[in-house]
Amino acid sequence: ALLRAWRFDAPLGAYAVRGDVDADWPRVFDRTRVTTLTGEVVTRALRGGATLSLVGITPAMSHGFDRSGLLALAARAPRDSLRLVIGHGPDFVLDLADTGLVDLALAGHTHGGQVVLPLLGAPFTKTRIARRYASGLNDYEGIPIHVSPGVGMERGTAPQIRFLCPPEVSVLDVVY
Fold first, then answer.
1. 97 close to 116: Cβ distance less than 8 angstroms
2. What are the tens digits of pLDDT across the range 43-75?
3. Which one, of 61, 62, 56, lies nearest residue 34 by Cα?
4. Tens-digit pLDDT profile for residues 144-159
5. Nearest CA among 103, 102, 113 for reference residue 136
6. Could you tell me if 145 and 133 are in contact, meaning their C-beta atoms sit under 8 angstroms apart?
7. CA distances from 111 to 6, 8, 52, 91, 126 (A)
């Protein structure tokens, strides 16, 4: 009901990719203005004749379990387009390094580490990439990647706490 009440007035639309525990995917977005992307590429026109391609990858691709599928999907975005690859887990950048298939990578999954220790950072992030990429905008071998710390916490046996890692809804302004 909250998602249906939200206006989502983004000029190029609002988009979502599947996470790890989305049992109600994609029904949670029924009757909203959100377009779900699971293994899909959409291209939108930008001012001045440029284009933006959003590559919405699957959870398996985002966690590095489907490299060939990821590369084939990312290659479907036109080379002259601004290409954003969006997935739940950030491990997919390991497979995209040195391919030239992405201009910006967007991910979540890490919850910023949930617990961040002074001078050390997040001791545990549940990813294969270095923990310094657990939150914020960074460069991974030439790929700008933004990992949102999100607003949630790990489920199951993990402690339901955040320490020096406040919940965050990230808003990125992409200038082309």
1. no
2. 999 989 999 999 999 999 999 999 999 999 999
3. 56
4. 999 999 988 877 776 7
5. 113
6. yes
7. 23, 23, 27, 14, 10
User: Buried (b) or exposed (e) across 96-124, using 16+ Cβ within 10 A?
Assistant: beeeebbbbbbbbbbbbbbbbeeeebbee
CA atoms within 13 A on the CB side of 97: 11
14 neighbors 35 (Cβ within 8 angstroms): yes
The total number of residues written for the chain in this structure: 176
- Nearest-angstrom CA–CA distance, 41 and 81: 12
Q: Are 101 and 71 in contact (CB under 8 A)?
A: yes
CA-based torsion, 119, 123, 125, 129: positive or negative: positive
The CA distance from 173 to 120, in Å, is 29
Q: How far is 50 from 80, CA to CA, in rounded Å?
A: 8
pTM for this predicted structure: 0.92
